[in-house]
Structure formats: C-alpha cells, structure tokens
Model the fold of this input.
Amino acid sequence: MATRTEFGCTECGFSSGRWTGFCPQCKAAGTVQRRSAASPDGSVPRAITEVAPVATTARLSTISEVDRVLGGGFVPGGVVLLGGEPGVGKSTLLLQVGAAIAHTGGRALIVTAEESVDQVRLRAERIGAVAPSLSVLAEADVDRIVAVAEDLQPDLVVIDSIQTVATRDVEGSAGGVAQVRESGNRLVAMAKRLGCATILVGHVTKEGAIAGPRVLEHTVDVVAYLEGDDGRGLRFLRGLKNRFGPVHQLGFFEMTEAGMLEVPDPTQVLLSGWSGDLPGSVVFPALEGRRPVLVEVQALVAGATTTPARRSAKGFEVTRLHQLLAVLDRHLGCGLASHDVYVSVVGGIRVREPAIDLAVAVAVVSSLLGRPVNGTAAWGEVGLTGELRAVGQSAWRREEAARLGFTSIVAPGADATHIGEALARIGLAMERTVRSA
Done:
C-alpha cells in the first residue's frame, strides 16, 4: 500500500493536497499540518444491490429517557460522544446506565481517568448502582483500556473522559489535539471490532462546545449534550447527531441525592409555579424531536437607562430577539428603541426552533402594555414583513396545550396571518399597525 503526503486540519479533519495558512472549512488559523496517508490498492466500486444487507441487531435498553434520545437504546458497536459542563451529572448518569445494563444480565465497564475506583464505589452506593457485572477500571492508558475490554468482552464501555486518556505512541499530554484524535480513533475501532456500545465523555469549552478536534464529532455515531438548570435541578439530555435514529430528541431528568430521576411529564415540572395572569408571560409549546413540551416565555420591557438600550435573551438567540424587536417597531410602532428588553425561557431549556418567534413577540408586547394574556399559548414564525408563517407539527402543539387546559391559543392560520392580527386577537392591539404592501 503506497503512502502519500497530504495536509489536514487538526480541528475539523479537512484534508487537502497543499498547505494553507488557515483551514478553508472551519476557518481556523494555523491548524493545517502535514501528515502521511495511505493510498488504498484494489478498491473498486460495487453496486449497492450486490452489498449484502446487515442483519438488524437488538438495541441495548437502559433508561427510558436515554433510550428516547438514542432512538430506542444503544446500538452494539455504536459510539456516543457525551458532552456537558463540569458537575452537570454526566458521570452519575452514565453510572446509572451501566448499572441498568448490569441489572438486565449484561456486562458494563466504567473506565475513569479522573477518579479512583473507591470514589466510583461511593457514588454507586449512593445512587443504588452496585451490581456484580458492573466493572470499574481506573486507567488513563488507551492501549491498556482496549486490552481490558478485549478480555472482559463487555456490552457497554464508558470512557470518562476522552480528554484524560492518552496513548504512548503519540507525543503530547492527555487532552492535546493529537492525543484526543488518536485515542478517539482507537476507541472507535475497538467498539466496532468488539461490537460493544461505547460512550466517550467529553469536556466542554467556555463556549459550550466539546473540547478537542472537531473530527472526533464526525467519527462517532451519536453526539449528545447534557444540559442543566441548577435552580430547579433539572437536566436535559439533547441529541445533536444520531446515525441510528432521529436527532434533537430531548430526555428530562431531575438531579437528586439518589442520582438522576426520570421526568416522564416535563411540562408539569416546567410550568410549576406559573401564573398566567401577569403581564409579559406566555406559554410556548416547544417541540423537541417528536416530543411537545410546554415552557413559559417571560419578557420584561423597561425604560432604557443606557444608550443603546439593553437586549438580553436567556434560552433564546439574542440575534433573533433583535430581529423581532425590529419587526415590532417597523410594523406595529412599538417604539422599543428607547426600552431595555429582557427575554427568558423559564426552566433552563434552550429553544432553537423559529416557532418561538410569536410567543416572544406576545410576551414583549404584553410587558410593554402592562396587559396580561391570561394563560395564552402561542407559536409561529414571524417574517421580516410581519407575516406569520406556519411551523411543523402544529397539531401536536395544540394537543399538548389542550391537555394542560389552555383554551386561548394564537398561531398562524386563517384568523391570523400578520403579527398585528395575532396580537389583536388576545387584546394586545397597538394604536398603529403598518402593513407592508
């Protein structure tokens, strides 16, 4: 097999035949380095009809909320990259996952490079995760980990964490770009060879992304993040990539002394203590994957004390907030340029879908006018010309709102095609509404 010289980005994995000062794909500077690559011999294309179908393998079922995010459970040989901030509960959740497999007759191996086996035992006793077929290994050498896994033949391997293990064949300390890339590749190869589901725990940067080379996210089969609201002890497991099922599914947990407890009805928890008769509050039926969840959207509009006025968004993109405020000023004459505007999605959930636009607009105008909307649920995308655009799965959103007793609903449809019409329907009509030609 011949070798060739190529240049690759250590961040995203982009490769090229020539060197450049920055990566054309991820735009990072100084990350393109020379490397040798093997040129395969004798590889020929095959008609897909000539490829034998792969037999369907039963998934490993553990915790129902985890199974929901993964699309039905762990796939043997599949690799999951789990990110999350320190202290959010990654190690606790994965210890429970390993115990769940052990309690059903499987074998699980927890590899910790950050704690001792005694510390893991103490946590396992506290959360009830002690089982004979759940093994713990305190080891930071990747090759030693692979050897132990080959001998034990577990159904699940947890590496906690990928930034703290290393191989002697690569220069540099654990956590470096080269070490993370090579360690990840060897562990992925181990998972495919042994057919064991593998979870790689990843530390996150201050920007919220998993530390290390982005090529690791492309190599694994599933990328998930564990997020949390410390005020309520809620934790959200969100899937961002899944080769074996749907993405953007969300699993809900409550962090307690006994470990992670599943939350089967998150709407009841997220709306606990909610009062619908206050200005600036509206309910939004968010859709996380195939799961509708009702969350409260709050807004506070106050006279500006600085120039320019302040804009703050929690759980919602601040750039989207700027756009909505411009639409409200242009088409409804709200005069928000002289007001500070604060928007928050209560409960710690971060909403990424544009369907939240109308709920944010309703909350802002409600706070501006000092008029409550009396338990209204709202959803819909708002265009730059003030038009309301339909969003997906409105029937599911309406059904979830009705289940919780909401009868006042404002959404795109025959009765409301413009944001001014939608606001007027719930008593938030402005004195001036400008309709674009």
Summary: The chain has three domains: 2-40, 64-264, 269-425.
